[in-house]
Design a protein that fits this description.
Blueprint lengths: L6 E4 L5 H9 L6 E3 L2 H5 L3 E4 L4 H10 L3 H9 L4 E4 L1 H6 E5 L11 E6 L10 E5 L9 E5 L4 E5 L4 E6 L2 E7 L2 E4 L10 H12 L1
Parallel strand pairs: 1-2, 1-3, 3-4, 4-12, 5-6
Antiparallel strand pairs: 6-9, 7-8, 10-11, 11-12
Length: 196
Amino acid sequence: MNASPRVGILALQGAVAAHQRSLAGLGVSATLVRTPDDLDRVEALVLPGGESTTLWHLLKVNGLAEPLADRLAGGMPALGTCAGMILLASDVLDGRTDQGWFSAIDLTVRRNAFGRQVDSFECDLELPAVGAPDLHAVFIRAPQVERVGPGVEVLAAVDGGPVAAREGSVIVTAFHPELTPDTRVHRLFVDLVAER
């Protein structure tokens, strides 16, 4: 019997406990990553939602930005949701001048493009990579994908705009899959990690 993959969750801000529950439902006991030593103990990482500029600041303060950049450049699997998508993108529009990102997936994203908190919404998405039925998705101050690189597979779209994508060992969503009981996005990620 194969051991479950060693998945970490970046635990500096955001819906960390919700991601932990989703992974636990799949039999994966996630490591909370707050330090470079924590990062050394995992083979894959979930970057949760939150506030992307705050997350970048906390990554720098906790000494995680550089080692995480190295791990991602080396092919470490990552799942980025909402702010996590922003952090993993190759280019960010409407960011702050002191904000950084990791360029782990060839996407240009615009921060908070779907609007303010009051403009948050839910919808059902066709996401063939996880099968039927449609996936219920929660969007909260979500980023919008403005450009998709040639090696990126769009997994789902809203009104023609990509809201989930995959390139190599990186999966990103503009929505929060951890905020519903449906664990299929997390399963897709765990299966990708297990294949590696």
